[in-house]
Amino acid sequence: MKNKIVNLLSEKIDFLTNDDISQLIEIPPKPEMGDFAFPCFRLAKELHKAPPVIAKEIADSITLPDYVDHVDIQGAYINFFLKKTGFVQSMVEAVSAEDFGASTEGNGKTICIDYSSPNVAKNFHVGHLRTTIIGNSLYKIYSKLGYKVERINHLGDWGTQFGKLIVAYKNWGDEQAIKEKGVEELMRLYVAFHNAAKENPELDDEARAWFNKMEQGNEEALKIWKWFVDISLTEYKRTYALLGLDFDHFTGESFYRNMTSDIVKKLTDANLLTESEGAKIVDLEEYNMAPCLILKNDGSSIYATRDLAAIFYRKNTYNFVKALYVTGQEQKLHFAQVFKVVELLGNEWAKDQLVHIPYGLVSLNGAKLATREGNVIYAEDILLEAISKIKKTIEEKNPNLEDKDEVARIVGVGAVIFNDLYNQRIKDVSFSWEKLLNFDGETGPYVQYTYARCSSILRKAGIPTDTYKVDLSNVDYSIITDEASVELLKEISRFPAVVKDASEKYEPFIVARFAVAVAQSFNKFYTVNRINVEDENIKNTRIALVKITRKVLKDALDLLGIGVVEEM
């Protein structure tokens, strides 16, 4: 129906493309303002007239088609009021399609997303939770649009810190303790090293020497390092399993260590490398940036070198149209430097294909959570605590619920994810258990509860819930022309635009807000429209709307990395 309005307007506005007109069209905030609105501000420069004058002239020149009831002018806006039955039919037919919200725009194209990427032998803490949740949602959004997405976990598994850990293990470590306690014991050794190095600075020299051995391929050094990596990855994968996600590649910094010499050669051949205090750098002063360090004064590589190697490897291997890096905003300068170096090597694609996606910090206001050494809060602790709290609520409110443990996991983990994704990613996230786990308001449990309510309605009506197909053969569109039904359909019909907008802005929160809006609209619809009535015509029609809502809620939650439950 929107496309019909676009075509109608394009006959009168020949200097704008259909895409331009489509992007300008709005859905008014109130039903009494119309079904679609077209603002005329942009036309003023071309037509040399005031926008309200332009709006009236265009409206007066339109011959109303059979699907438009009337047109109204409000200031610079042309408001279109559609004939409800035809409007409702067009929306229902569109939103009931199995692939509603999907697109083929990404077919044959690859996007690489680099996210999560914890530092090996260190806690998987709340900061890693943010990059993991955001990255996973972006992966699902781009997949919905037809892209092939390479999910890359760029583990921090290389660098001087492993030299420090090897020294600590050899001096104070115990093999059995590491096997039993895993990353917790590795963290204890790491802290012990730093405490000891304050009194004995020569330990730092030993650490650098051990890392140099790793770089040179020393068998003993690499064996210990690999053991630390395996122990860490086992723990990290436990957290990923809780979140219900996985990666295509666990290719950390070490994967690219033998490719760094090629980077040094590229930079040398391009006359970009200069020496500074024995180290090799790329001078970026011309671009108002600090120099990009490529080789330390002992000749060993640094993470910038390995990031450069990773970019060229991924471009050559996957031929990506975009490579996204989901990390904290404190790494903004680092990626600006690395991307600029790629560009200076003669790669113009770096300007629009390499994208840093920053996010804000995490705080836990008043949350009583377990802390570990160094006052670091594990991501796993938060997820398990959320699951535990939901389980307790279930025991109180619905003790006979089947699969209580699985429901608690899906709802608890979903609550944490939704809380993270509900606001723009650059904003800091604050954990409040009261808000996080609320079954009312703008939360994950509220949206999941609305989905479960849809399933409950279908079960009571004797409709199977094992399929999302919608049968429109028994639908009487005139029945759902009331305000609540139309508003629900309008909200649902935004889904394709929402997915597209979220992909272009790298903002999953757009999908989260959409999910809440659909849930709220459905609950208003359900309040004023009885479903299980004797009139089969009314019942079948409203059931179709329930099934459509249920499917769209599931699809929207899936794009956020959140599951659904049939009963709560």
From TrEMBL:
A motif ('HIGH' region) lies at residues 118-128. It catalyses: tRNA(Arg) + L-arginine + ATP = L-arginyl-tRNA(Arg) + AMP + diphosphate. One of its GO terms (biological process) is arginyl-tRNA aminoacylation. GO terms for cellular component: cytoplasm. Signal peptide: none annotated. Residues 3-82 form the Arginyl tRNA synthetase N-terminal domain. This is Arginine--tRNA ligase. Keywords: Aminoacyl-tRNA synthetase, ATP-binding, Cytoplasm, Ligase, Nucleotide-binding, Protein biosynthesis. Gene3D superfamilies: Arginyl tRNA synthetase N-terminal domain, HUPs, Isoleucyl-tRNA Synthetase, Domain 1. One of its GO terms (molecular function) is arginine-tRNA ligase activity. InterPro entries: aa-tRNA-synth_I_CS, Arg-tRNA-ligase, Arg-tRNA-synth_N, Arg-tRNA-synth_N_sf, ArgRS_core, DALR_anticod-bd, Rossmann-like_a/b/a_fold, tRNAsynth_Ia_anticodon-bd. Monomer. It holds the Pfam family tRNA-synt_1d. Residues 447-568 form the DALR anticodon binding domain. Belongs to the class-I aminoacyl-tRNA synthetase family. The gene is argS. The keyword Cell membrane does not apply. It is found in: Cytoplasm. Its EC number is 6.1.1.19.
